[in-house]
Amino acid sequence: MQAERVGAPPGPKYAHLEEAAGQRIRGVRRRGKFLLLPLQGGARPGDVLVIHLGMTGRLSARAPEGYERARLTFQEGPDPVLHFQDVRRFGRFLLLPGGDPAGLPTLAAMGPEPMSRAFDAAAFARSLQRSRTAVKTYLLSQRPVAGVGNIYADEALWRAGIHPATPARCVSGAQAAALRDAIRAVLRNAIRAQGTTLNDYRTVNGALGAYAAALSAYGHAGDACPRCGGTMERMVLGGRGTHLCPRCQPALAGPATPLGPSGRLTP
DNA sequence: CGAGTGCCCTGACAGC
DNA sequence: TGCTGTCAGGGCACTC
After folding, report:
1. Cys bridge to A47: A39, A63, A152, A201, which one at CB 3.0-4.6 A?
2. What is the pLDDT of residues A117-158, one digit of tens each?
3. Would you give the DSSP letter of residue A81?
4. Other CB atoms closer than 10 Å to residue A14's CB: what's the count?
């Protein structure tokens, strides 16, 4: 296998790719939003190819129309080239020498996988106690749990009835448990729907993700809250658009009735 | 060291 | 019509 940067300027987002030459991909794993491809056969053991799609990154066996940033070339197999296209250049495609994540602080400090046993309510509640920052901002750091981005953070906080600006350490144990369940439910449903296509996102096969139609909070400022009928609002938190129902998600107060895993009100 | 801010990058869109 | 300005956001560098 060979890896090369195409078009994109050299830099940390495409580091050390030349060192993948001659190595073999042992498997494909995922941590949060990072794809991890452990390599084998290099001068130094433990090298890992790291791919992050960012906002607009896509992998495909067919050459993209433009904006290709990197590619892998294989010596055997039905698809000799894997192309990495990334219009807005938020993605990464790099080799991690020896698999040492020191150069990727978010990956190094990443919390448990959301569907794993390690993501339990008590541990999540303890993690939230460690930060004074807004609970939504803390979720986006990937430290309390892996893989939650801006859209799903808004959705999960809405479901759990927690105001996004609540300081993380002020989230009660009961709220943390509700938020944990909400994160799992939102991610499970979004994965089942093949993701959320607002503009750019496509599945690996080019299909649209259907979860956009199921969003309750994100992008719904000015609309009626599906739960209480109040008016949804938008605010900016940590530089990110943030959508909430001020009635269901009161600032620093207890949660409204949380939604169950089905997405319906729990009896 | 934790928290907050702004940058990167490009296309879509609003407004004049 | 064509220009300018604004917005979108994952991760990280930078500042305080």
Report:
1. A39
2. 999 999 999 999 999 999 999 999 999 999 999 999 999 999
3. E
4. 21
Residues with CB under 7 A from strand C: A 12, 32-34, 52, 54-55, 88, 90, 104-107, 140, 142, 149-151, 218, 234, 236, 239-241
- Of the candidates A79, A78, A33, the one whose C-alpha atom is nearest the C-alpha of residue A55 is A33
Token pair recorded at residue A175: 């709220």
Q: Which pTM was predicted?
A: 0.90
Q: Which residue type sits at A203?
A: T
Measured from the Cβ of residue A235, the count of other Cβ atoms closer than 10 Å reads: 14
Cα gap A38→A132, rounded to integer Å = 36
Q: What is the pLDDT of residues A22-37, one digit of tens each?
A: 999 999 999 999 999 9
What's the rounded Cα separation, in Å, for the pair A131 and A165?
A: 12
Instruction: Write out the two tokens for A261.
Output: 């895993």
pLDDT 10s digits, A172-218? 999 999 999 999 999 999 988 777 766 666 666 666 666 777 788 99
Q: pLDDT tens, A37-59?
A: 999 998 889 999 999 999 889 99
Tokens found for residue A227:
């739960």
DSSP at A2: E
Instruction: Note the CA–C1' distance, A202 to C12, in angstroms.
Output: 26
Q: Alpha-carbon distance A224 to A109, whole Å?
A: 38
- What is the rounded CA–CA span in Å between residue A66 and residue A2? 21
Q: Which of left, alpha, beta for A11 (phi over 0: left; psi -120 to 50: alpha)? A: left
Residue showing tokens 């300081």: A167
* Pair A182, A156: CB distance under 8 Å: yes
Strand B and A87 CB separated by under 7 Å: yes
